[in-house]
Here is the input.
Amino acid sequence: MYSSRSGWFNRTVLLIVLASAGLIIASRFGLSPVPPVVSTTLYGWALLLGAFALILGIANTVRFHLARVQRGQREWLLSLLLLIVFALVLGAGISSPEGTTGLLSEWIFDAVVAPGQATLYALTGIFLLSAAYHFLRIDRPGGLWILAGALPMLLVQTPFLYRILPTALVDLVDWLLSWPVMAAMRGVLLGSALAVLFISLRLIVNGAK
Here is the structure.
């Protein structure tokens, strides 16, 4: 008796979630069959739930690293550093009357976050070159074409080489980045989004059974 009620409740919640998600997505494309106020309200609820999920994620991360520091597990110093930086950034945002637009918050973003992101982006290029090198070492077909396409793009994106490269090469790389590469990236993002959507639906449906 209890299991049948639980299954009915799970299926009802599943239908509500799927219908709400469909209405929100349709409203973003102007195809919503309901009045705009309904889709706007659902969108606001989704944002509110997303905010709560973000807070829970932050709390779980803090709890995990606190436990790691308390137990003295491997690389606990990195966890302690993460907690200290988190406390400093949170304190800067809360203590500043302007919030995230305050001078201290902007300085943290400009002097810490932005350089860190640039460093990670630069390391990505190095990792890609290392992967391409290992790919070419085992003589797989197509490795030379990958290197021939990646090398000019890397050269054009390098500031001190950009000025001395031929204009024709720069224009060719810009065209490749604007059209074929962008089309491939959009295809990858669309495929990834659809895969995540279908996997999420499958998990929800299996969980409702």
Q: What stands out?
A: Residues 1-95 form one domain. Helices lie at 2-28, 36-71, 76-95, 103-137, 143-157, 159-162, 167-178, 180-208. The radius of gyration is 24 Å.
